[in-house]
Every structure is written in structure tokens, then in C-alpha cells.
Fold this sequence. Notes:
The chain is mainly beta. It has one domain (33-147). 14% of the residues lie in helices and 39% in strands. It contains one helix and nine strands. The strands form two sheets. Strands 1-3-5-8-9-7 form a six-stranded mixed β-sheet, with no helix packed on it. A three-stranded parallel β-sheet has the order 2-4-6, with no helix packed on it. β8 (125-134) and β9 form a beta hairpin. The N and C termini lie far apart (61 Å).
Amino acid sequence: MSILHRSLGTLATNALTNLSEDLTPTLGGNLDGGGKIQYNTILNQQSLGQVSTNQTLDCASYNQFSFEPTAAITINFINMKVGCVVSVRITGGGDHTLTWQVGGATTNFKWAEGEEPEWAIDSGMDIATFIGDGVDSLSGGLSFGAVAVA
Length: 150
């Protein structure tokens, strides 16, 4: 092995050792956002299947929900925290009237663009995303509309 190959090998080994040392962050204090930011750490999905009765979606236990309404129903979000993000996959949501609540009140629910989107019918699927923007207050809108289901 030539001197050049040995030197390059040593250089590469030292560079990688130093690189891994440099990429290790040194943090001090608590990374809690000063108590002003709360994020979902729950990555749990609750699949409700076909539903014909009012549903309570507990955001303390789940942050992803899916259902297919078979009748007019009310969907009530509870335990929604500021900054939490919740996704809801709805199949055939346009086939029946859906009433949306947060903490039992429809006045706490705010839609993007000021009005509820038109939901897909039959086997069409929508995915809506909601963000907790206050105590028992929720803003939301359609993320993906009328996704075809094969």
C-alpha cells in the first residue's frame, strides 16, 4: 500500500470520526416550548367502520380517525389541545348530514374558507385535517377530497 493510500485512509477515518462528533447536538435546558406549544405524540388510529349513531372522538387517545356514516350523525371532538393535529378519513360523507362539534358545541368549530366542504358520496373518500386552536376550539379543512377507492 502506498503512502498516499495510507494517508487517505487515515484522513477518511479521522474525518468520519470528527463528523459524527460534530453531529451530536449539545442541548441545555428543557425543550418544552416554554409551555406555549403542545404537539401530538400519539400516533394511534381509531377505525370506527360504518357508523349510524353520534360519535365522540377522543383526541387524548387518538389523533387519526376513520369512519363511514350510514345515517345523519354528530361528530364531537373531545380533549383537543392547542396545537394538536387530528386527521379524519371519511368514506361517503356526502351521503348523510354530518354535524361537527368540539366539546359539545358547534360554535367552536371553524372551517377553512368559512364553510364546511362538500364531502364525497358513495365510496368516495375525504381526508380532513384539524388543528386545535384554543381550549375546546378547532379549525379544520379538507386535506384531500374525493379520493377514489378501488
